């Protein structure tokens, strides 16, 4: 069974005011002192955020438990130094992001200017194991049309600098400012994939392979496909659902490849439109159906994703869990819908943040 690992980025906020706090160095220093050899926490681009990475898991129950544990540990480290964590993909309150002091981040700030300084966005990256680069590239080619549905499910960033952005996932729109971000063309082989990456690095526009910000890519460090389209989810259960569906998409794509089925190729231009539509609407409007690239109600597109991956989900013992998770999001709302409902109820973005702190650790 394919293993899955999750990387989540969490926002550091003041527990009373909800304002972002540039305290990642202190949080990481405390985590290092308290570390029991697990080494799960990492520094990120801005000082108002911290990242953790789970260990690879084949059981979704164990993965969900580890996500919840890491969130709780991150909150514990933060609270010891006077802040806390919120699983928000953008800050609802106005913020002046503080870029980290290391050489890499300073190069990015000089190279990309305001795009770096404003890039305080928080995502969830899912790693799924593959047997080889050949299988991995075959999977990348066949995942492409379905990734926008993951964005819609996980959408958790409706607010930007104190205002409603009009988007369910504004994080994904901000992320597109990086020159290497977004959907890719078909690669066809590992050789073509690696040649494209090498050519991009050779331009000097990006620093190195670590800045290959494709929607889905081969991991540099692990034998995995890394899917990078999701907002950090407000609830750990939603992160677990995204990981479950991502593994099923990878397995389904690998089976299609082994059966000799050619990938769908709507083209990068239509994939960009699908990603934009998912960011705009989330689960409240229409999405582009991955097989037709025509607008359909979000509920119908989510059910199409479940149908597409049903065999893989069933073989992993995840079908009922995935169906229940999708039904819950469609019924109760994803993070973007919950944030907007909180604002309607409280008329205070500060209250939205402080309530979301509670949701993060629920």
Automatic annotation (TrEMBL):
Q: Which residues form a coiled coil?
A: none
EC number of the protein: 6.3.2.2
Q: Provide the catalytic activity annotation.
A: L-cysteine + L-glutamate + ATP = gamma-L-glutamyl-L-cysteine + ADP + phosphate + H(+)
Q: Name one Pfam family in it.
A: GCS2
Q: Specify the superkingdom.
A: Bacteria
Q: Mind telling me which InterPro entries this protein's record contains? A: GCL_type2/YbdK_subfam, GCS2, Gln_synth/guanido_kin_cat_dom, YbdK
Q: Which SUPFAM superfamilies match?
A: Glutamine synthetase/guanido kinase (SSF55931)
List GO BP terms, alphabetically: modified amino acid biosynthetic process
Any single GO molecular-function term of the entry would be: glutamate-cysteine ligase activity
Entry keywords, A to Z: ATP-binding, Ligase, Nucleotide-binding
The kind of enzyme this is, by top-level EC class, is: ligase
- Protein family per UniProt: Belongs to the glutamate--cysteine ligase type 2 family. YbdK subfamily.
List, alphabetically, the HAMAP family matched. Glu_cys_ligase_2
**Job of this protein:** ATP-dependent carboxylate-amine ligase which exhibits weak glutamate--cysteine ligase activity.
Q: What is this protein called?
A: Putative glutamate--cysteine ligase 2
Tell me which species this is from. Answer: Streptomyces gancidicus BKS 13-15
Q: What is the lineage of its organism?
A: Bacteria, Bacillati, Actinomycetota, Actinomycetes, Kitasatosporales
């Amino acid at each position: 069974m394919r293993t899955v690992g999750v990387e989540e980025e969490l926002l550091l906020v003041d527990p009373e005011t909800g304002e972002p706090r540039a305290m990642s160095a202190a949080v990481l220093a405390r985590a290092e002192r308290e570390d029991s050899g697990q080494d799960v926490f990492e520094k990120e681009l801005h000082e108002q955020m911290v990242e953790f990475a789970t260990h690879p898991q084949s059981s979704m129950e164990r993965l969900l438990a580890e996500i919840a544990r890491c969130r709780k540990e991150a909150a514990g480290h933060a609270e010891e130094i006077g802040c806390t964590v919120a699983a928000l993909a953008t800050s609802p309150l106005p913020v002046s992001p503080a870029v980290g002091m290391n050489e890499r981040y300073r190069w990015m700030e000089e190279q990309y200017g305001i795009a770096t300084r404003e890039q305080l966005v928080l995502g969830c990256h899912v790693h799924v194991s593959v047997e080889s680069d050949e299988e991995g590239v075959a999977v990348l080619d066949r995942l492409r049309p379905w990734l926008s549905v993951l964005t819609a499910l996980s959408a958790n960033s409706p607010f930007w600098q104190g205002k409603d952005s009009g988007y369910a996932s504004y994080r994904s729109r901000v992320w597109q400012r990086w020159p290497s971000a977004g959907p890719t063309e078909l690669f066809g082989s590992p050789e073509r994939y690696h040649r494209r990456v090498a050519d991009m690095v050779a331009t000097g526009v990006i620093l190195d392979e670590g800045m290959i910000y494709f929607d889905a890519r081969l991991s540099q460090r692990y034998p995995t496909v890394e899917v990078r389209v999701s907002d950090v989810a407000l609830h750990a259960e939603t992160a677990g659902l995204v990981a479950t569906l991502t593994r099923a998409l990878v397995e389904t794509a690998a089976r299609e490849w082994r059966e000799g089925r050619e990938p769908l190729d709507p083209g990068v231009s239509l994939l960009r439109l699908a990603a934009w539509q998912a960011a705009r609407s989330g689960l409240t409007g229409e999405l582009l159906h991955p097989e037709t690239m025509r607008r359909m109600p979000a509920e119908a597109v989510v059910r199409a994703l479940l149908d597409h991956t049903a065999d893989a989900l069933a073989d992993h013992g995840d079908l009922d869990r995935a169906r229940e998770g999708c039904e819950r999001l469609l019924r109760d709302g994803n993070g973007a819908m919950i944030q907007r409902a909180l604002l309607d109820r409280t008329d205070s973005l500060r209250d939205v943040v402080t309530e979301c702190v509670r949701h993060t650790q629920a």
